[in-house]
Amino acid sequence: MLNAEDIKYEQFSLEKIFELALRNDSFYMCYQPIVSTNNSRLIGFEALIRSRINDVRLRPDNLIPYVEKTGQIIELGSWILKQCLVDYKRLESYGLKDFTMSINISPIQIIDHDVTVEINDLINELGVCPKNIKLELTETALISDSNKISNTFARLREMGIKIWLDDFGTGFASLSLLRQFKVNGIKIDKSFVSNIATDNDDFTLCSAIIAMAQRLNLELIAEGIETPQQLQILNCLGCENIQGYLIDKPLALGDVITKWAK
Ligand code: G
Ligand code: G
Ligand code: MN
């Protein structure tokens, strides 16, 4: 039988490792703080999945595409939603108030499954305020089954849940989709931010995205901020919220409590 010790030899398939992780309950969520650009006030967190068995082999950028292919993203996605909201209540019990929780959602959770019923049940059961939940989808999700996606967004909006476009600018979606899908906010991808201080084109792109979002009344978060200089530029450009290693890395719940709940 495969055990955790064997994983480091990297001789097992993603399938075996995923099964082992499921069986051993080795998944957990990390939370990366999102703060206000001008005064570093905590706005909320983005939830990012991790596995205790082996961080290297079960990195989410390997894991998520794999479980999307097998369909297991529906089961894993349900676990993620519940864990995030359970952890939300736990953070509240430590005194954090009115913060947001950004949860990454795969389009498959919408297209092959009814994520609205599931979220509705969870917010009622756990008593989380829906306006503090942000669902992050990549822009390519908008072109997969646009009818189903837009119907689902409409129901989520009625529930008070916010919809955000992740990795904005890296996919193929057209700008008109922003209007058609009535998203609440966009996340500027870290690939644009990382050279904002040194590359004129990236600076221009970031300022154009920020200006566009302001005109369309969209909220904004810039991702991947690593230097004070990047922060300063984004602040001058009027990007209201940021997330990145400069502020903090994704933290296990215990570390969030120690560092961010006063
Ligand atoms: O943390 P990072 O290496 O943490 O994440 C890599 C990629 O995996 C990102 O694109 C991120 O959106 C995705 N990802 C991380 N956690 C989750 C999750 O809980 N659900 C989904 N669908 N994607 C996730
Ligand atoms: O694709 P998505 O935006 O959901 O995933 C965010 C990814 O970015 C995660 O893998 C997260 O760990 C990573 N990340 C968060 N902050 C930083 C940062 O400041 N620098 C870099 N290089 N990666 C970051
Ligand atoms: Mn994200």
How would you describe what is shown here?
There is one protein chain. This protein has an 8-stranded mixed barrel, surrounded by 4 helices. The mean pLDDT is 91. Strand 5 (162-168), helix 7 (176-180) and strand 6 (185-188) form a beta-alpha-beta unit. By secondary structure, it is of the alpha/beta class. It has helices at 14-23, 60-70, 73-93, 107-111, 115-126, 146-159, 176-180, 190-193, 200-215, 228-237, 253-260, and strands at residues 27-36, 42-51, 100-104, 133-138, 162-168, 185-188, 219-222, 241-242, 251-252. It has a single domain, classed as TIM Barrel (Alpha-Beta Barrel). The chain is built from 11 helices and 9 strands. Helices cover 44% and strands 19% of the residues. The chain binds guanosine-5'-monophosphate (G) (2 copies) and manganese (II) ion. Residues 47-49, 59-61, 64, 80, 104-106, 250 line the site of one guanosine-5'-monophosphate (G).
Question: How is this structure best summarized?
Answer:
The protein is an alpha/beta fold and 262 residues long. Helices cover 44% and strands 19% of the residues.
Topology:
Blueprint (H helix, E strand, L loop, with lengths): L13 H10 L3 E10 L5 E10 L8 H11 L2 H21 L6 E5 L2 H5 L3 H12 L6 E6 L7 H14 L2 E7 L7 H5 L4 E4 L1 H4 L6 H16 L3 E4 L5 H10 L3 E2 L8 E2 H8 L2
Parallel strand pairs: 2-3, 3-4, 4-5, 5-6, 6-7, 7-8
Antiparallel strand pairs: 1-2, 1-8, 1-9
Helix pairs in contact: 3-5
The structure holds guanosine-5'-monophosphate (G) (2 copies) and manganese (II) ion.
